[in-house]
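## retry 2 of 3
previous attempt timed out at serialization; input unchanged, resubmitting
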Amino acid sequence: MPIKVAVAGHRGKVGAILAVALAAEPDVDYVGGFSRGEDLAAFLHEKRPRAFVDFTRPSDVMHNVLAAIAAGASPVVGTTGLSAADVDKLETACNAKNLGGIVAPNFAIGAVLMMHLAEIAAPHFDGAEIIEMHHATKLDAPSGTALSTAKRLAARRGGKPFSHKKAEKVTLEGTRGGEEGNVAVHSIRLPGFVADQEVIFGLPGQTLAIAHRTTSREAYVPGVLLAIRKVTSEPRFYRGLDELLGLSLG
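## retry succeeded, writing output
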């Protein structure tokens, strides 16, 4: 039987592309999209999706996804801005209903591999900085991917934090970026970008840059499809696409 899938945020930049892609998949029955202001309970009762994909807003995602889980739909959440407590709450709700689910800061497979490779490099360099570049209408800064990357890099250092050189004289506040675990994070918001990220490591006399470029939002489709098929086939909750891909640092 095809997997019944609904999308919250189907008129958004990512959701609109997902809706078209899902409708073209032979093993997926795209039952429709949900928009802010509509009756979610009635939508879930009528459509009865097995998977509920959410690419909406941080202010809406918890209400949407908890309602979907209560209705028996496995969540696939690409909305960023969730706290650790929010993710814990979603996992608890999935476990209570014996459902699979996933919350991922990025569904682009290349971006997930970029973070994984950066984690491998982290113990071998003195310093690291992240530059993330997104479209001008992105609501949050830094991106969920950049913040997740910084936390993961810092964790890989164990008791030996990265060095982070602060300017002795600051002539423009914020120039050195935000800071998470001694990793500086710089956010760029400009028309023309979709979602790019570069991690730059430094040692005396050398640097290493690991970058991921997104040329269109179709980059998220393979990861979302993979997640839908996985979470509807087993009652496991994933915190990131890397877990689902089986990426491990050993």
